[in-house]
Structures are given as structure tokens and as C-alpha cells.
Amino acid sequence: MEPASTVPPSLQFSPVELDQFREEGYLVVRRLANASDVEQMRRVTEIGLSDHVDPIEYEAELRYPGAPQSMDSEGGRTIRRLKQATSRSFLFTEWMLRPEVLNRLKQLLGPRVVCPLAHHNCIMTKQPKYSSETGWHQDIRYWSFQRPELINAWIALGTERPENGCLQVIPGSHTLILDRNRLDGDLFFRNDLPENQPLIESKELVLMNPGDVLFFHCRTLHAASRNSSNETKYSVVFTFRSADNPPLIGTRSAALPELLLTPGI
Predict the structure, then answer these.
(1) Over the range 117-142, which residues count as b (16 or more CB within 10 Å of their CB) and which as e?
(2) Around Cβ 250, how many Cβ atoms within 10 Å?
(3) Which residues have C-beta within 8 Å of that of residue 35, sequence separation ≥ 6?
(4) What is the mean pLDDT of residues 91-101?
(5) Residues contacting 36, CB < 8 A, separation 6+
(6) pLDDT on residue 109
(7) Distance between CA atoms of 194 and 199, rounded to whole angstroms?
């Protein structure tokens, strides 16, 4: 029998939550970021948006469905995400290191947790009118690590609902091995194939309030519709791996430094 944990329940996942994550590939922890965190993160976001502080990714650069056709067209300067969040404020790194966050990451990844800066590490903005639609995909499709076993943390800085393009996930999809012919040329899960429909119809909407945090596996299929509301939706996203699952040398995943969140272990 394993020894009972001495960590307070509020600072880690319960056994039931861990079982849910392992089965479904995602889990929401309510108010894991406090009101002060959310306020400060929004302030950093608003400065980055108003001043167009680089590095930035614009909707027109990806040209997903609904995005402006070019940087010179109407809405062409609509920002999709503010990249390199950790370089914008130390608050983001400080938040990762808090016991209630780091303990949960250790439960999912093991005792040595690393935050890659090459993937996510950003503030996602889904703006009205010019926001795009993101098709069904697994994040691991464009990552290169020894094992496809990474965890994402998605912090809601406001309300996330269907009308402003909240995330949709397919429970249990992180356990599937998908045939290449079920994906398109960009490795999005095709929604035009009859064989994919039953899986897509099992989707669940991830409804979130400010400070809620979604943890999801890098192989969990997820998507997001456009923002049809009148207000911009803000979310902060980070990716984490175990120390024994390094990026492959020479790939995009190894292009930037990483943060070792549990030194000395």
C-alpha cells in the first residue's frame, strides 16, 4: 500500500481527479489562478495588444477559416497571440512555481518538470469579427519530443463560452492512434470523413470562468470556433514535460531554452 499523501487536497489533484484525467485526457481546476493573478495577466495582455509588443502572431499569418486574407486586408493586424509570455512578466513563471500548480504537474509528469519555451508559452486572444476557427487537432502534431507525453495548462482570463469560441475537446482521444488518412495535409482531424463523425460528435465544451485552469494532454483532440461575441477572449497557455522526455535535437521543439521548474531533484 502506498503511503498517504501529506500534501493538502487543495494543493494537488485528488485520486478521483487523476483517474478522470487519465481516462478523459483533460481536467478543469476551478479558480487555480486567483483574482489578482488574472487582473495582472490581463494588464500585461492589454499592454501587449495596444502597443503590438513583439513577438506576435497575427490571424492573417495562419489564414485559418475566418481570418483576414492578408496583413493588408481589413482586420489584417488582428493579433492571434502574444508569444513568449514568460518574457513579458515574471508573474507567469511565478505562477507555475506555486505549490498548487507545480504539485499537480508533478502528479501528471513525475518529480522533474520542465516548461519548454518553444511551444505555447503565449497569451491567446480570440477577438470579435476577425478571429479564426481552429480545426480539430492534437498539439503533438507539430512537436518533436522523445515521447508524445506532454501536458498543457490553459488559464482563462475571462469567461469562456461557446459564443466567444471556448475550447472543445474529445474525451479519451489522447489514447487513440489515428491513421494518417483521417487527417488532412496540415494534420488536422478531418471533419468531412464519415468515419470521423462519431468521434467528433462525442465532443465536450470546456466552459470556464476567470482563473479556471484546464489541464489537457498533448494528444487530446481539441478545437475552437470563432468569437461571435462583442468582447475579446484572453487565455494564457503553457506546455510542460518531464525531464526525461527531451526535445529532439535540431527540431523546432529544441530551438529555445527551457525552464526547469524543479531544480535539485
Answers:
(1) bbbbbbbbbbbbebbbebbbbbbbee
(2) 9
(3) 210, 211
(4) 97
(5) none
(6) 98
(7) 10
